[in-house]
């Protein structure tokens, strides 16, 4: 069986040279960056907003027990049934028990990365349920039998032509590649599924402790239909999504919109606090909230990296990451890609198998600089590298560092190495690009930086 690290290397080697793929992603990222920067200027003090957001999430995460209890008590007071799931298997079983109780056949879902995390769709399909994603991007990648490409833009890697071909192949519906026409195709199909659905499943962007309500932010209105039309609603939410106060949303909703999609505010921002009440016209007859741990408490116990639980899943760090831009979202082979995924996946799925993700970084710090809640992402990547090296270093790593340490610590040896490298660069010029090039593994996809003709120490000695 191929290890995640080997698969990552294979996929990265295949995707990185694909210029068509790179062009699609960089075009999308370029448009996003333009509107994002325009919207950030609408904040009176963007850095002040980041500081406040970071403090608010720090407070929520460090008092998670108290805020979760408050959140649950307020939800249950309005008739919501709350379930605690320690593992992904337990979360799936809780949801299956609800589906069996309701004798459900068709399930409609709005966007929920937590459901991707626990592999819910595959499990439900295997159990015989018809599961339909209602978010347009998620619907498209579901038809293609692919995982979401990005936290916010699931189908970012596809062109209009790709989507047209997918609809023709999977839905047997002919359409132009005009975005409005493609949207109407999906709308006609999904409206039927809303009416057939026995259960609706959603995620949550935030969980407000003060009022016992979940907050869902979206642009298509599909989550509202998922919650309003089926008789039973299930929300699967990670325990870290808690915010202390409802007034916190005044900061987090526009911040999520700006950093997630470059909007001032998303089109639909809805609060759900329980099943339909006696004086309400619509809404589910039953409302279930499944609170998912799935190793989050293990990350909470890590004082060095627990601020990663403050992530609001805006995807901003993916959008600025030079690695993500070149190898794409699917290469990570995990629910959460990019810098934040490389930080938290070793906690959620095991450091031994997933430590390679933290090596896939330039450590440029762009992710930390852009994060709206100021997660120290690039230092966490370094910490994962350190922890991974301590865990089980490879023979190559052991040998390389045993050779490197004495050279780096002895001035004469380091100076000699530099001089030999200059000679090596001249020799390499004769075999550049051939298979006998000693740097071929590097230079087949990138340029080898030239070694300076004079070191600083040599320059300084000459100056003196």
Descriptive overview:
By secondary structure, this protein is an alpha/beta fold. Among the domains are: 42-294, Rossmann fold (3-Layer(aba) Sandwich), CATH 3.40.50.10420; 405-463, no CATH class. 54% of the residues lie in helices and 10% in strands. The chain contains 24 helices and ten strands. The protein has helices at 4-15, 19-40, 46-62, 64-77, 88-101, 113-117, 120-126, 136-143, 160-170, 179-196, 222-228, 249-261, 296-300, 316-320, 322-327, 338-349, 351-354, 356-359, 366-370, 377-391, 395-409, 411-431, 440-443, 456-463, and strands spanning 81-85, 106-109, 130-133, 199-202, 206-208, 213-218, 232-238, 242-243, 268-272, 286-292. It has a six-stranded parallel β-sheet, with helices on both faces. Strands 8-5-6-9 form a four-stranded mixed β-sheet, sandwiched between helices. Strand 5 (206-208) and strand 6 (213-218) form a beta hairpin. It is globular, with a radius of gyration of 25 Å.
Structure keywords:
single chain, four-stranded mixed β-sheet, about 55% helix, globular, alpha/beta, six-stranded parallel β-sheet, about 475 residues, Rossmann fold
């Amino acid at each position: 069986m191929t290890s995640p690290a080997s698969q990552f290397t294979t996929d990265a080697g295949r995707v990185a040279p694909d210029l068509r793929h790179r062009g699609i992603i960089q075009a999308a990222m370029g448009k996003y960056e333009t509107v994002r920067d325009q919207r950030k200027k609408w904040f009176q003090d963007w850095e002040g907003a980041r500081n406040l957001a970071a403090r608010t999430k720090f407070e929520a995460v460090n008092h998670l027990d108290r805020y979760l209890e408050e959140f649950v008590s307020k939800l249950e007071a309005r008739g919501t049934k709350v379930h605690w799931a320690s593992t992904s298997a337990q979360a799936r079983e809780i949801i299956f028990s609800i589906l069996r109780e309701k004798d459900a056949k068709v399930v409609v879902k709005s966007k929920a990365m937590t459901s991707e995390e626990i592999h819910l769709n595959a499990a439900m399909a295997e159990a015989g349920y018809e599961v339909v994603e209602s978010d347009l991007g998620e619907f498209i990648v579901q038809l293609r039998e692919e995982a979401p490409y990005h936290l916010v833009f699931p189908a970012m890697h596809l062109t209009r032509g790709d989507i047209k071909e997918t609809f023709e192949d999977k839905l047997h519906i002919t359409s132009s590649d005009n975005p409005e026409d493609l949207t109407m195709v999906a709308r006609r199909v999904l409206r039927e599924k809303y009416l057939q659905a026995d259960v609706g499943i959603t995620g949550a962007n935030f969980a407000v402790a003060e009022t016992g309500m979940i907050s869902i932010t979206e642009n298509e209105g599909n989550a509202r239909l998922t919650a309003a039309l089926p008789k039973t609603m299930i929300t699967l939410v990670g325990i870290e999504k808690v915010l202390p106060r409802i007034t916190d949303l005044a900061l987090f909703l526009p911040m999520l919109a700006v950093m997630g999609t470059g909007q001032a505010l998303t089109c639909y921002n809805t609060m759900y606090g329980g099943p339909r009440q006696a004086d309400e016209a619509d809404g589910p007859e039953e409302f279930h909230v499944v609170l998912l741990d799935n190793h989050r408490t293990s990350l909470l116990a890590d004082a060095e990296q627990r601020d990663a639980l403050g992530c609001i899943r805006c995807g901003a760090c993916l959008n600025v990451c030079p690695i993500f831009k070149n190898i794409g979202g699917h290469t990570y082979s995990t629910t959460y890609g990019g810098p934040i995924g490389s930080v938290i996946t070793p906690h959620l799925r095991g450091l031994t198998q997933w430590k390679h993700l933290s090596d896939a970084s330039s450590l440029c710090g762009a992710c930390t600089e852009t994060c709206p809640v100021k997660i120290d992402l690039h230092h966490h990547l370094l910490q994962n590298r350190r922890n991974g090296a301590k865990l089980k270093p490879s023979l190559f790593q052991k040998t390389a560092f045993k050779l490197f340490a004495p050279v780096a610590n002895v001035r004469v040896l380091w100076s000699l190495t530099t001089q030999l490298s200059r000679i090596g660069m001249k020799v390499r010029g004769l075999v550049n690009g051939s298979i006998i090039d000693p740097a071929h593994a590097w230079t087949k996809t990138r340029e080898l930086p030239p070694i300076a003709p004079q070191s600083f120490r040599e320059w300084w000695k000459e100056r003196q």
